[in-house]
Amino acid sequence: MLSCDVQHGPFWEAPAGRRHSVDLKQIEYFVRVAELGSFTRAALALAVAQPALSRQIRLLEVELRQNLLLRNGRGVTLTDAGQLMLEHGRGILHQVERAREDLGRARGALTGRVSIGLPPSLARRLTVPLSRAFRQRLPDAALSISEGLSVQMQEWLQTGRLDVALLYNPPTSPELAAEHLMDEELFAIAPRPDTRPGTGSGGTESPMPLATLATHPLVVPSRPNALRMLLERRMADIGCTPRIAMEIDGVSAILDLVSEGVGYAVLPGHAVRASAHPQRYLLHPIDAPRVVGQVHLVTSARRAATLAQQATIALIREMVAEPQPG
Question: PANTHER family attached here (predicted)?
């Protein structure tokens, strides 16, 4: 997204005798308000005063002679004209970003900003190495990495807050383009009875049947977390239901509660191995049946990827293909 100080010449010329014209700043402000559904949230995101933001949106509406937003006590909603303007506005801002990238290529550099969304379990594994590789390969570009739940990140992809996200088992949607990256086996995570130094390192133990896991209390994320929904579907396939002891949205908090004996967790193995105290846990492969999450690389189907985004996607593919330690 363009920085909030972009002020170029008019994109559309005003009719004769009119003083105002539409500029990129107004388009960017409108798109951000429309995506966030609130002048207050947009003003914070753009680091501008709310009265100045409101004035620019009003000037845009006056210039276009259309009401674009309906203001209410809970925020704003788009009119039909506003929805049309949002589609055009995103396209305009995207084309400007592409122009900047092309100019950057002319001097031998890829520029722009790339926003990536990762689920918490993958963020622990990928954030640092991905950031390091990004700086090496795209030194003139900017990277933003956000953690979020799958449903959240799907919405962020659609609104343009994210360019790329890694999601477990994403639903089919005309708004999203999904590419299968890898399969991740899930483990039953149990507390290790003896956690004295040197008594273990989060290694793999004997397999645990899914029906046996269903008899243990579980610490799981709240719905509609993709891995929880996958676990519930697999248990339903064998006629079982999970015993939910506690719902916690956060890998670190889940693991802390497991170590305290509140219940078992169901997570990828790397979530434990990347934790601060992997020696506190036993990892049991789940069998009869296995529980495997599918990780997809997801982008918006409505917006073409910029060159910097394409390079970042290629980098993610390479990193996921590399063997992981542990």
Answer: NITROGEN ASSIMILATION REGULATORY PROTEIN NAC, TRANSCRIPTIONAL REGULATORY PROTEIN NAC-RELATED
Assigned token pair, 279:
């020696």
Tokens standing for residue 273: 């191995």
Q: 237-281: per-residue pLDDT in tens?
A: 999 999 999 999 888 899 999 999 999 999 999 889 888 889 999
Other Cβ atoms within 10 Å of 193 Cβ, number? 9
Domains and CATH numbers, the chain: 24-87 (1.10.10.10), 107-181+294-321 (3.40.190.10), 183-293 (3.40.190.10)
* The pairing of beta strand 112-118 with beta strand 164-168: parallel
CB 180 within 8 A of CB 294: yes
Residues contacting residue 175 through CB under 8 Å, at least 6 positions apart: 157, 158, 300, 301, 302
Pair 312, 183: CB distance under 8 Å: no
What's at 208, amino acid-wise?
A: M
- Per-position b or e across 49-82, b if 16+ CB within 10 A of its CB: eeeebbebbebbbebbeeebbeeeeebbebeeeb
Q: Show the tokens assigned to 121.
A: 């379990």
Task: Provide the residue type at 275 as one letter.
Answer: S
Q: Return the DSSP state at 193.
A: S
**Nearest in space to 100 (alpha carbons), one of 142, 62, 132, 67:** 142
* Phi-psi group of 240: left, alpha or beta (phi > 0 → left; psi -120 to 50 → alpha; rest → beta): beta
Residues 256, 259, 263, 269, CA torsion sign: positive
pTM to 2 decimal places: 0.67
